[in-house]
Amino acid sequence: xxxxxxxxxxxxxxxxxxxxxxxxxxxxxxxxxxxxxxxxxxxxxxxxxxxxxxxxxxxxxxxxxxxxxxxxxxxxxxxxxxxxxxxxxxxxxxxxxxxxxxxxxxxxxxxxxxxxxxxxxxxxxxxxxxxxxxxxxxxxxxxxxxxxxxxxxxxxxxxxxxxxxxxxxxxxxxxxxxxxxxxxxxxxxxxxxxxxxxxxxxxxxxxxxxxxxxxxxxxxxxxxxxxxxxxxxxxxxxxxxxxxxxxxxxxxxxxxxxxxxxxxxxxxxxxxxxxxxxxxxxxxxxxxxxxxxxxxxxxxxxxxxxxxxxxxxxxxxxxxxxxxxxxxxxxxxxxxxxxxxxxxxxxxxxxxxxxxxxxxxxxxxxxxxxxxxxxxxxxxxxxxxxxxxxxxxxxxxxxxxxxxxxxxxxxxxxxxxxxxxxxxxxxxxxxxx
Length: 433
Ligand SMILES: Cc1cc2nc3c(=O)[nH]c(=O)nc-3n(C[C@H](O)[C@H](O)[C@H](O)COP(=O)(O)OP(=O)(O)OC[C@H]3O[C@@H](n4cnc5c(N)ncnc54)[C@H](O)[C@@H]3O)c2cc1C
Description:
By secondary structure, the protein is an alpha+beta fold. The chain is built from twelve helices and eight strands. The strands form two sheets. Strands 1-2-8-4-3 form a five-stranded mixed barrel.
């Protein structure tokens, strides 16, 4: 995807790359694109660039943008590779992480390209790719967090340091493993609760992607609504937390994590970009409150709340999973309150909605995970009730309990913070920074 230029990343309305019709259905593309992932490489015999450009004479801003297909090599009638197109990689970035991916500066000098879709619909067409890429980026953040967690567990098992406060657990050794220390367990359980909750979130979303293709119109519509509503949440929440988990995993490693003896530092570096590209997480939060929530009169969020209410009514009465269901009901209540606050305060002053957006997105992410943890707890409990002695199910409930008791209370803080509105952020004059 070739969107970014030196003067514009988030604000693509400022794109300068231009396209001139050649009169034969093709266009000549000229301009510079920067930070293009895998913009140049030798993994495939050709590279097909999708380039955002402005047709000469088109209106300024987003509405004047069109999307073009621009191959590295032109393709002959018989499908064989033809001459080299006039585009070039003029440099590769030196980055903090993701060193396996070449981030290229691309120069187009009258390169031959073909319009994808209609002129002036470039952003809409680009979003077909971007929505999927945002889901992929959420998965990337989570996957790095998951790998970092696994490395931290391995390290914690091997590292002998200090003694358990309740008496030695490895009396014949020089020290106990660091797994005896409550603070190390806090870090590992925090990481694990996010990783397992995030995995369920990814699978639930993948299910919605399948249901979008259902023959039943109502089912397909609802799944489509959920995909739209939850894509920014999944992207931003899972990448914020993926980085947080990678940082916890480094902390578990102590100094061995900060030096390059283990992979902990690479996970942390690699995870960081996921919060920035495919639309920064701040922009995901704005997309959620500004476009996705109010879309179709709030149909998606109302239907999601109704699903949660139905789950709570069905499962909340008594029994071992009651605390999970109560935690979910409480998180949903707070999210509903936050949504009402946005409706009442965001309209009169859009800065209020923007100021609350990141806390709202995190409140949303926590509620989504609470919903999934309640479902996982229900499934694990059913296995145990049916006589399973598989430790997997016991560990699932124990991890879920950590989520419930030590992560989910953050919903309160997010709600309180979002309700402070824009004033505390906007009161300070720009020159005072
Ligand atoms: C390693 C890497 C790979 C990349 N790969 C690609 C690629 O393949 N293709 C491609 O086209 N681009 C790519 N990018 C670019 C990437 O998508 C942009 O960096 C990203 O969208 C942010 O744009 P920016 O860097 O210009 O930041 P800016 O837009 O300058 O933003 C700076 C800060 O201001 C905030 N901000 C900006 N506008 C607003 C607003 N309206 N409201 C609130 N906050 C705002 C942002 O959230 C951010 O925190 C890549 C970047 C990197 C580093």
